[in-house]
Amino acid sequence: MTLRPLHYIVITLLALLALLAAALYQRATLTLTETQIIETYASQYLELAGHNAKLTDCRARPGQNSATRMVVICGPDRFDAARHYEFHVGPLGQLIVKHGPGDWATRDPVAGREAA
Q1: What is the DSSP string of 34-94?
Q2: In the beta sheet, which residues pair with residue 87?
Q3: Tell me, what's the pLDDT at 29?
């Protein structure tokens, strides 16, 4: 099979499309700040945790792999399995996985059980 000029045009267009998609993805990750991500998941925590919850209960740590941008950790400073939540967030701010009070029997929190 020999490549004809039309094949080169199609390959070039596909390459340009891939570059455009990569540039748009990069731009989207740069325009979303860490503060915006933390505030988004802190508000979810307030809804989940009830009246004793405060925005200041939330903090974040960097993700441990390239698919996780950060982990938003919400709950009291000392680990309390009944009030501890973790939101694992992807590069574009999307929720990858959420761990809450029902998960700590089988999972270890990112901050550790003895975190203060």
Answers
A1: HHHHHHHHHHHHHHHH-TT--GGGEEEEE-SSTT--EEEEES-SS--TTT-EEEEE-TTS-
A2: 72, 98
A3: 65
Amino acid at 88: H
- 111-114 contacts, C-beta under 8 A, 24 or more apart: 111/61, 111/73, 111/79, 112/79, 113/79, 114/79
Query: What local confidence, expressed as pLDDT, does residue 90 receive?
Result: 92
What distance in Å separates the CA atoms of residue 54 and residue 40, rounded to the nearest whole number? Answer: 13
User: pLDDT tens digit string along 25-69?
Assistant: 777 666 788 999 999 999 999 999 888 889 999 999 999 888 999
As a whole number of angstroms, the distance between CA 28 and CA 62 comes to 18
How far apart CA 8 and CA 107 sit, in angstroms, is 52
